[in-house]
Amino acid sequence: MAEIRSAFEIAMERTKDVESDKESLQIHELKQKGKALLSKFNEQSDFDLEKELKRFSDQEREHVRAGLFEVLTATITLPQDENALQRIKGLAPAFEAVIADKKRFRMIWEQVTQMLEQYIQDRQNLIEQLRQQFESRIRQREQQLSQQTGQQIRLDPSQDPEFSQALQQNMQHLQGQYTNAIDQAREELERLFAG
């Protein structure tokens, strides 16, 4: 014969998942607070991130740190220019606020920033090399167009479809190489964060 359960037992069984959902929601909210701390850090030059983290209880702080670390690692991307590189470099104090082994972090961070600097240099060199490679072709097209129209025409290599295609292919290759290196750096930072 089937066991008859009380209404209380049935209600407890149904609310069992609600308790874990409340906990998941609280963890999510704490991680979001951690992510929001990065915005304050970026906006306010005198923002003391370590002091702000200490405002949370030990248990809450772990989730806030995790959210902050998650958004920090997501910001390590290939910079398009020197300004983007400087913004990434400026994240070092935020990383130091969430990583305990600061000495090891600084060593990894130096490697990361050097790699990103090299990427910008390689990117600029690639563009310049392709411009030089296509220069004579562009000048020939300028002469042809000038003869056809009777006006002096100046073309930029970026307007040439072949140049654009070559640039895109070479840039994808370059980005692929550096993206792999960034992924490895993120993994190393994650190990450091977890340790």
Question: What is the string of SSEs from the N terminus onward?
Answer: HHHHHHH
Kindly report the average pLDDT value.
87
Give the radius of gyration: 27 Å
Q: Which shape, going by the Cα principal axes?
A: elongated
Name the poorly predicted regions.
Answer: none
The class by helix and strand makeup works out as mainly alpha
How many extended strands?
A: 0
What is the percentage of strand-forming residues?
A: under 5%
The main β sheet shows up as: none
- In helices, the fraction of residues equals over 70%
What distance lies between the first and last C-alpha atoms, to the nearest angstrom? 54 Å
Tally of contiguous helical segments = 7
Describe this structure in words.
The protein has 195 residues and is mainly alpha-helical. The chain contains seven helices and no strands. The chain has helices at 7-43, 49-53, 58-74, 82-89, 92-98, 102-149, 161-194. Helix 6 (102-149) packs antiparallel against helix 7. The longest helix is centred in the middle third of the chain and has 48 residues, at 102-149. 12% of the residues are buried. The model has no long low-confidence stretch (mean pLDDT 87).
